[in-house]
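Could you help me review a protein record that somebody else here produced? Do not assume that whoever made the record got everything right. The record follows directly below this note.
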Amino acid sequence: MTWLKDVIGTEKAIIAMCHILPLPGDPYYDKGKGMDYVVEMTRKDLLALQEGGVDAVMFSNEFSLPYLTDVRTETVAAMARIIGELKKEITVPFGVNVLWDAKKSLDLAAATGAGFVREIFTGVYASDFGIWDTNVGETIRHQHRIGAEQVKLLFNIVPEAAKYMADRDIESISKSTVFNNRPDALCVSGLTAGTETDAQLLQRVKAIVPHTVVLANTGMRLENVEQQLAIADGAVVGTTFKVDGKFENHVDPNRVQAFMDKVKAFRAQWQSEAEVR
């Protein structure tokens, strides 16, 4: 049994992304509609995800494009306001992701009571937004300084729109990340949000770190649920829940329900087979 059961309530968990619209300070923030509109649109997506039956949600500033690796204070403050206003309406476990700043993600988690964060904690990358460096030792010490030790850390080891600067295979990255940093989960991604995670890549990661939670981080759809969950311990799902399966749209509760019905059917069969084994 993994920590997913304790924190989220089930194995083979589906963590649904609740994408927040551009915020104050972001280039595409709608100053005319203001923060009240951002809160209401986040509420709309949150309720649609919960209505559809997801296991958990993760709030992220997905539309703060182009992303920063040193996120400004106003972004974290705005996200804290949104989650604070919606807190009484959140009925499932939740996490946060301040793209792409690990310390700020932990700050937001500590302020809001989030149970987990997803971030790029390790590595040095050539990315769409320049050289992307990290300092995991300082980040974990920051986690302990602010009293966020209980927050689960989901390490994204295949960053979207970036490539490791060192020539390392996924097995060595996974093994050393687990040995050196004790992550709660490894997230394996495709190139961008909505791009399918390669099943062979998932298999290679899970094989080398069998006792660590491995999550499919992008591109899970109705058509590949069984294949991906047969390998991964769970998934982070965003784009497929949107109207017409398009990243920029709002959540469609009917798509969520159809997806989760298939997940629950798979989970029941998987649990039954596990009992036999």
